[in-house]
Amino acid sequence: MTQAQPSRRRTLIGAAVAALAWSLPGTGLAADAYPSKPIKIIVPFAPGGPTDIMGRVVAKILGDALKQTVVVENKAGAGGNLGTDAVAKSAPDGYTLGIGAISSLAIAPGLYAKLPYDVARDIAPITMVGIAKGAILAHPSAPFNDLKGLIAYARANPGKLNYASSGIGTANHLAGEYLQSLAGIDLQHVPYKGTAAAVQDLLAGNVLLSVESSLTSAAQHVQSGKLKPIAVTSATRAKLLPNVPTVAEQGFPGFDVPTWFGLIAPAGTPKDVIATINRAVTEGLKSPEAMERFAQIGGETQPTTPEQFGATIREETKRWGAVIQRANIKPE
């Protein structure tokens, strides 16, 4: 009887330790158990734009790799800040992820005096997802056909020429503001809740200009004559608009406003869970299917480690903070 009691106590202690290990975040057993229920990816822009398309590609990659349901929730508003804040305030358990954009992760900290989240404190980078090249497009009725003509018209009509973007604080918005500061012109910004809405108003002639990051529809509308291209906003020309010169080529060397996206989680998400998601997504982004889908919207896949993505966020935050301060760009 006395010999059996210590053995029984050891068994009970062992069971308790095993149960604790299973429940602790960051343990190997917890990683093995992940995912045990559906995963949600928050896309901080409206359906149909490049962020949404990339988010849905990532959702399929992750679902296929982890054999689990992955749903996409669009939470548009405030240039991506609303959806990013929702990710930051979610439980750090790997079941709520988000697509973070340059706007909410690198531009917003320099643009807004107060944000509801702190990128360094509240966000865990998982991997870069991709980049997209943008372009300045005009309605056919616009009285100019290139950047030189646009600038001349804007100087002759200060404050009368409006331009659309996918939202305040987005890369598209900053491209327009940055161009204004360099060219010495005064344009009126008209923010929308996503790319699709901005393009529709441009096609209708409700705005004469738009800075777009989704070049799939742009290329189709340019080819059909419904829109005319003015300039590409990245450092190099876009494959979908090969004959359209960049802003840099048209008198502003060094002008480069890329739109990049990445997969994020709430800070505190277990490192093994982050590693599991990173492996699944980065491998999937290397597939011909993913690369082709990104190419269709004028984008490129950009898989990275969490550390590399974190370094990109820090570097881009510093870069855009300097641009915002130098150009005295203010949120409306």
Keywords for this entry:
D-Maltodextrin-Binding Protein, domain 2; 17% strand; 332 residues; 6-stranded mixed β-sheet; 13 helices
Brief write-up:
This protein is an alpha/beta fold and 332 residues long.
The strand order across the widest sheet is 2-1-3-10-4-11
SSE topology string: HHEHEHEHHEEHEHEHEHEEHHEH
The whole-angstrom Rg is 23 Å
Question: What is the straight-line distance between the termini?
Answer: 79 Å
Could you tell me the number of beta strands? 11
Largest sheet: 6 strands, mixed
CATH architecture of the largest domain: 3-Layer(aba) Sandwich
Number of domains: 2
Poorly predicted regions are 6-31
Our estimate of the beta-strand percent is 15-25%
CATH class descriptor name of the largest domain: Alpha Beta
Q: Label the overall shape.
A: globular
Protein structure class: alpha/beta
The CATH superfamily of the largest domain is known as: Bordetella uptake gene, domain 1
- Average pLDDT reading: 89
Structural account:
The chain is of the alpha/beta class and 332 residues long. The protein folds into 2 domains: 34-131 and 259-327, D-Maltodextrin-Binding Protein, domain 2, CATH 3.40.190; 135-250, Periplasmic binding protein-like II (D-Maltodextrin-Binding Protein, domain 2, 3-Layer(aba) Sandwich). It contains 13 helices and 11 strands. The strands form 2 sheets. Strands 2-1-3-10-4-11 form a 6-stranded mixed beta sheet, with helices on both faces. β6, α8 (171-183) and β7 form a beta-alpha-beta unit. The longest helix has 22 residues, at 306-327. The chain starts with a helix and ends in a 5-residue tail after the last helix. Mean pLDDT is 89; it is low at 6-31.
